């Protein structure tokens, strides 16, 4: 083998090594970035949940914000599964508080209660016997009765 042939062979090996090295480093960077993003997303979800829960402890307007944050986390499936039962318990407690101790004669308080009822109906508290009474107190339709389809005769948003 001549030195020219060996120089040509090592040239291809060098290029191949550079290409493979670049690809491997790109793949490694992608894996690290994806793991970081996943970690950041989990942290964001936990932060949003804690902020939402913090708002529940305030008055009517703060409660509205907290309900909105928690509701959006549930609707977008961003509420961590391992805390869902605890969140449902907190929402139920808030609903009971509004119904029995809140100022449910105020429209905003009734709206908060209605939003909480919608969330509670997605949890194990849907079968709690007090739910029907709470619905009556805050002026929410019977939680067990089937809801007519939107736009059908007798639907709540249609004039009779």
What do these coordinates show?
With 160 residues, this protein is mostly helical. The chain has a domain at 44-138. It has 5 helices and no strands. It has helices at 3-56, 60-75, 84-101, 107-120, 130-138. Helix 2 (60-75) packs parallel to helix 4, helix 3 (84-101) runs antiparallel to helix 4 and helix 3 (84-101) crosses helix 5 (130-138). 16% of the residues are buried.
Key words describing this protein structure:
single chain; 160 residues; mainly alpha; 5 helices; 0% strand; rod-shaped; disordered C terminus
Summarize the topology.
Elements: H1 3-56, H2 60-75, H3 84-101, H4 107-120, H5 130-138
The beta-strand count equals 0
On the 0 to 100 scale, the average pLDDT is: 77
Shape descriptor reads rod-shaped
Largest sheet: none
Secondary-structure element order, N to C: HHHHH
Rg estimate, integer Å: 28 Å
User: Based on helices, strands and strand pairing, what is the structural class?
Assistant: mainly alpha
> What is the helix tally?
5
What share of residues are in beta strands? under 5%
Q: Roughly what percent helix?
A: 55-70%
Low-confidence stretches: 147-160
Euclidean distance between termini CA atoms: 98 Å
In short:
This protein is mostly helical. 69% of the residues lie in helices and 0% in strands.
């Amino acid at each position: 083998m001549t030195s020219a042939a060996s120089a040509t062979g090592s040239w291809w090996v060098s290029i191949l090594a550079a290409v493979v090295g670049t690809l491997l480093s790109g793949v490694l960077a992608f894996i690290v970035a994806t793991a970081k993003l996943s970690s950041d997303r989990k942290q964001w979800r936990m932060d949003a949940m804690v902020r939402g829960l913090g708002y529940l402890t305030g008055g009517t307007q703060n409660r509205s914000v907290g309900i909105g944050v928690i509701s959006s986390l549930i609707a977008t499936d961003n509420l961590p599964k391992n805390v869902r039962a605890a969140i449902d318990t907190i929402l139920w407690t808030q609903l009971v508080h509004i119904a029995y101790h809140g100022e449910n004669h105020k429209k905003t308080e009734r709206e908060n209660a209605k939003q909480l009822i919608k969330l509670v109906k997605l949890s194990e508290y849907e079968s709690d016997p007090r739910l029907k009474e709470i619905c009556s107190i805050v002026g929410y339709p019977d939680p067990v009765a089937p809801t007519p389809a939107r736009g059908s005769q007798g639907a709540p948003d249609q004039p009779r």
